[in-house]
Amino acid sequence: MNQSIGENQQSQPSINYVNVKYSFKCLRRHLFKDKVYHVHALQNMITIGEQFNDPNPKYKLELNLKNTVYWKQEHGQNRAFGIKYKKNVKYFEAASEQLNKFRQAISCLIGFHSLDEHYKLEKVIGQGSFSKVHKVYRLHDDKPFAMKQVSSKQKNDKENMQLLENEIGILNSINNESILKIFEVYRIEEHQYGIIVEFVDGVCLATLIEQLKKHQTKLKEYDIKVMLQAILKALVVIHQEQVIHRDIKPQNIMISLSSFRNIKIIDFGLSIKNQLQYNRCGTPGYMAPEIVNMKKDQQKAWTSLCDIFSLGVVFFKLLSKGISCFQGQTSDQVLANNKKCQIDWTIVQQYNYSKNCISLLKSLLAKDPEERITAYQALQHPFFADLPPVLATDFVGNSMTFRSKCIMNQTIDKQNLDSVTSLNDYTGVQKQQIYITDLKPSRISRRI
């Protein structure tokens, strides 16, 4: 239900208009006399008042996914926006250019209505237990996008809503060509959301690795080098935003078949940012030792270096024709070997890769996180000497030292959460992976 507020009492605290994202005038049509209002898009709410910077605006709407903004269009152009007020939708008219800027200012912060007036749904390209992904086309320019349709109504509504808002917030905070770009969020039904993201024209890295394994062939070292450099550059961006992905694996890395330099990191559903507190999780076979061996009910500080270890496992598979460094016939066996972290280096050494290649691999897969290198340090490794150098100035806007380890305080509580079944939503290729949350293989169920 929309949390809009009617006439405000003088006792209500005044609104802080210091950080305004966008403001404009609009027209509210009435039977006898139309009225002009001032609209302000703030950091956490929309205000609509009779005065500029109105201390007690008539309408207020919190910016969260539980609320909805409605749109009216004519000939493909926005003509008015609406909010629910006393069970009715009140519309406010403005110039199309102003409405477009307003829409952009609140995009991904609140649910939009009328998906079918803006996008045409096409085929399903991915499906999971509680989500599916459509290829969609934007009506006014026929541009393709992907729409991930998810439900927040599962066993724990509050937790699922928090995870959904967390993923959307992280995607919305990172603007980089190697990170999946999010555009808008639509509220399809009360507990159904459609997340509009860019359509990635490529395949997931898991598909490529499967082909290597199937045909018992290997990539050229140079091609692997180009791909790895691109992934590491993406991780530098992610980590400088104080984000830990927590699920780096081939299924969550998209590649372009035209150039291995073009990659996309996707699926931030398990990611954390700043001091957000979540239970540990990951995919058996890709989890860093400090995570997979973490004792329950303990407070533990761990870092973005867990993503580096996971990437090391991916690197290992690329070098070994698809063989994992933690093998097993079942998820239990894979998990057990992941915990031991006893890596057989001869699996990759038999293919005569360069010393620098093996050296970097071992640095990424260091069991002790204190001995593991960061993403930026990895980019300075001699392995990449024959590629264009990556400099700190390439990452404009970084507010932290690249060599810092971005420590995140992680509290593990007593709750035994379910495991998760993951799906490569963005390619239509279903690849199920078991996530571990309580690290007890006997307690396995599924959720997306």
Automatic annotation (TrEMBL):
Provide the GO biological process annotations. mitotic DNA damage checkpoint signaling
Instruction: Give the domain of life.
Output: Eukaryota
Gene Ontology cellular component list: cytoplasm; nucleus
InterPro entries registered for this protein in UniProt: Prot_kinase_dom, Protein_kinase_ATP_BS, Ser/Thr_kinase_AS
Q: Which UniProt keywords apply?
A: ATP-binding, Kinase, Nucleotide-binding, Serine/threonine-protein kinase, Transferase
Q: Does the keyword Oxidoreductase apply?
A: no
> Per the record's keyword annotation, is Transferase included, yes or no?
yes
Q: Tell me where in this chain the Protein kinase domain is found.
A: 119-384
Amino-acid positions noted as binding ATP in the UniProt annotation, renumbered to this chain:
148
Q: Which Pfam families match?
A: Pkinase
Molecular function (GO) terms listed?
A: ATP binding; protein serine/threonine kinase activity
Q: Which family does it belong to?
A: Belongs to the protein kinase superfamily.
For this entry, the protein name equals: Protein kinase domain-containing protein
Native species: Paramecium sonneborni
